[in-house]
Specification:
Elements: H1 3-12, E1 17-23, E2 29-35, H2 36-46, E3 48-51, E4 78-83, E5 89-90, E6 97-105, H3 116-131, E7 133-146, H4 150-155, H5 173-177, H6 180-192, E8 197-202, E9 208-213, E10 216-217, H7 218-238, E11 242-244, E12 257-265, E13 273-274, E14 277-278, H8 280-292, H9 297-300, E15 322-324, E16 331-334, E17 341-344, H10 353-369, H11 395-403, H12 406-412, H13 414-433, H14 437-443
Parallel strand pairs: 1-6, 15-16
Antiparallel strand pairs: 1-2, 3-4, 4-6, 5-6, 7-9, 7-10, 7-11, 7-12, 8-9, 12-17, 13-14, 16-17
């Protein structure tokens, strides 16, 4: 949506509210609802301030210590949400509403380097300045939908919920027809918000589905990704349902977020393929991503629950190998010619897309700059390879790798490494303090 179209819509009374949104560390949209004329008269030119604690809280919005940019010692000041008007879009599921996404700046105008959107922007700028290349990305988000409302689910302690399908509907047209009113509404209203839906399909877990969207430039895809997650939850709530993007919501199959990644020149020439296989640049890109995935896994799997998804034989990867159309590998090469790309199968649906894609761009830059050689393609069952390097098994393992990574510090800077190390510590501390159902079942009577 253009600024001029917004002016016309406000003047005609069809738009009265502007959502100004930032993306927080957890990949959620946060921000303000602004009176539309006020947005045009003031915020468009000057931005709008928000408390900097938005990048220093846990998932429950609790203030926590240990962040350099925000805390009681600093007085919890403000930063500025700077509208990126290229992201202006209608919000079809909310009447009279448009959304614009923001970059974050300090009050003196300097960027907030810890902001997820800024982290990705920085990596994309380096990719272009160093190699003259641009990243293109598609993300495939899975979710589980329940007949219970969010309020009912909370009252039930998120237990004994009723999924919208009672059996495995992977590729089932019959089973997904029962959920089509919800899926159709999501597809059409996301199209109205400027996304390009390609397809919807059932998945293996009960009530699990995937809606796929066309790939785009890396930043645009990350922006669309968070709008989709946010909007899907709002639409589900309006329909009296609930949807979760947890990586592992139960003992069955987890929710993945496979990230398809490729590079092109500024003129749009694809560089990953050559003939029927990988080009030299494509091989270096994949080698770089493979070499850095363990150290950057904190950006690919950010939560305690993320690591529950990595189970052998589950279609979630455990081995950091690459293969052509091999779903047992963490890195799956798919497509041919201009569409040749690498699919990173490590992230779950709980991932922050800005951080995950930034990790892939950093790995690609590393491979290209050092002209890394790619190991031989893996064929067969990568789960069964005893010599394969592994995806970290826990958030603790990932944090140790991240904190000790010289590559992460060189790629992202000490401020970013420290900030997201603290975010992982907060998650671990909260988990360590919790008494789980598992403990109660094992110990309430028996111990």
């Amino acid at each position: 949506m253009t600024i001029e179209a917004l002016r016309v819509a406000i003047a005609s009374g069809t738009v009265d509210t502007v959502l100004l949104a930032l993306t927080d560390m957890q990949g959620r949209l946060q921000g303000k609802r602004l009176h539309a004329p006020y947005f045009l008269e003031e915020v468009l030119a000057h931005g709008s301030e928000a408390c900097n604690y938005l990048l220093a809280v846990d998932v429950e919005m609790n203030t926590v210590s240990g962040y350099a940019i925000s805390g009681w010692e600093r007085g919890y000041g403000d930063f500025v949400m700077v509208p990126d008007m290229r992201t202006l879009r209608r919000v079809p599921w909310l009447p009279g509403t448009v959304l614009v996404q923001a970059d974050l700046a300090w009050l003196d105008g300097t960027p907030v380097v810890e902001s997820p959107r800024q982290i990705l922007r920085h990596q994309l700028d380096l990719l272009e300045s160093e190699h003259g290349l641009r990243a293109y990305v598609g993300t495939e988000l899975e979710f589980v939908a329940f007949q219970d409302s969010y309020e009912d689910a909370q009252r039930a302690g998120y237990r004994q919920l009723t999924p919208v399908n009672s059996y495995n509907v992977d590729y089932s047209l019959l089973g997904t027809s029962r959920v089509e009113p919800l899926l159709r509404r999501i597809r059409l209203e996301m199209a109205g918000a400027g996304l390009y839906p390609e397809s919807a399909k059932g998945e293996c877990n009960l009530g699990q589905h995937e809606i796929a969207f066309r790939y785009d430039t890396a930043l645009a895809t990350a922006d669309n990704h968070v709008v989709f997650k946010h909007g899907t939850k709002e639409i589900a709530a309006q329909e009296g349902c609930s949807i979760t993007f947890m990586a592992k919501p139960n003992a069955r199959e987890g929710n993945s977020c496979h990230v398809h990644f490729s590079l092109r020149t500024a003129e749009g020439k694809a560089i990953m393929g050559e003939g029927e296989g990988l080009s030299r640049a494509g091989r270096a890109v994949i080698a770089g991503i493979q070499a850095t995935t363990r150290e950057l896994s904190l950006f690919l799997a950010p939560n305690i629950n993320s690591y529950k998804r990595f189970q052998a034989g589950s279609f979630a990867p455990t081995a950091l190998k690459w293969g052509v159309d091999n779903r047992t590998c963490a890195l799956r090469v798919v497509g041919h010619g201009a569409s040749l790309r690498v699919e990173n199968r490590v992230p779950g649906a709980d991932v922050n897309p800005y951080l995950a894609v930034a990790a892939l761009v950093a790995g690609a830059r590393h491979g290209l700059a050092n002209e890394l050689e790619l190991e031989a393609e893996f064929t067969g069952n990568a789960y069964a390879d005893p010599d394969a390097p592994r995806v970290p098994g826990t958030l603790r393992d990932a944090l140790a790798l991240w904190r000790g990574s010289e590559f992460a510090r060189a790629a992202f800077g000490d401020e970013v490494v420290a900030h997201y190390a603290r975010a992982a510590e907060v998650e671990i501390e909260a988990f360590d303090a919790a008494v789980t159902d598992w403990e109660l079942h094992r110990g309430f009577e028996r111990l």
